Protein: DUF4271 domain-containing protein
Amino acid sequence: MLPLEQSNAITGEWLVYEDETQELVPYVSVVHAKQQALHQWLTVEPAQPFLIGFTAQKDLCLFLNNQMIFKADSTAAYKLNLSNYASAVKPVEGKMLLTVWHPSQQPNIKGFYNDVQSSSQKADTGQRPLSIRLREYVNQNPFIVFLLVIGLVYGWLRINFPAEFEALFDVRLAGRNNRLDEGFMANPLSSWSSILFVLAFSLSLALLIAAIHTNVQHIRLFNRLFPVSEADITTKIGVYTLAIFLFLVLKYLFLKFMAFIFGLEEVVVVQYREFIKTLLFLGVFLPFVMLLYLSMNTFIPETILLVSNVLVSLLLLLAVLRVFVIVNKKATVLNLHLFSYLCATEVIPLAVVLKLIVFSF
Structure:
């Protein structure tokens, strides 16, 4: 039989205050989506550490019996020992009310957890814990399944589109552009085969970005771009895949619009084709990066996070550099007008994408 109460432990039993009844009632996410303050009754033993960890948006505040004990000065991950504040707070019937409040949005209560690892490290070495501690980990099963799906997709593409597959991924043909330029990439995204290759790349990159953001959410801070629950990794991968695919499709319209403004319509097809070709070629190596993530993330998560971020940055940077090199063969980029156009269509979007994907934490 499980105990009804547990000291120095935060639970998922959150409450909200209803003005009509003037009572605290159980929190229901669908019903109380606009509540900016969430509460929880805690049993605190001041003699024992009560360590919690959480990811907080800027200006998030914590209260203990209506006394503010914490305010986040920036969006980041935090750890707090509630026992340090319990001695200055008078309990109500042996309990204390923890309040999480944000002035402009509902707090991310899913990011709160008991910092068991830190508590264990601070405990005496000769003292054995009485409660069972469960090690926290990132569920990697969705990543494994999607990695297998990507392998099947590339295998299916190789069988059904052998000429296009060889032209894209055969390193011996890497310097021969005519075969691709005159083939299915003559006008990118104009054939089903090119669309399928782009979708395969989108899924591969989405898988890696989802792994990066899940890793960040687990060890550093809550992802601010798409606030999808860590447990729903499948939804996160689907959202990222769709976003990447739409970005690649809409980039062509963006280039057409900017080229019309700059009067450089003749470079649009070459520029877009080289960008897509480079991404597709480098994208075939992304599943190997995922294998590195799956095999080493448990042991060195910070290092794997850094390596993954660097590789994603290099992927996008090399695509932009390739565009500069190829366009320079058509017309020198030392031309200030052309250079300004490439900065507006390649460099600035690259900086924005890197900010959203890599440097948003």
Remarks:
- The first strand starts at residue 15 and ends at 18.
- The radius of gyration is 26 Å.
- Residues 233-262 form the longest helix (30 residues).
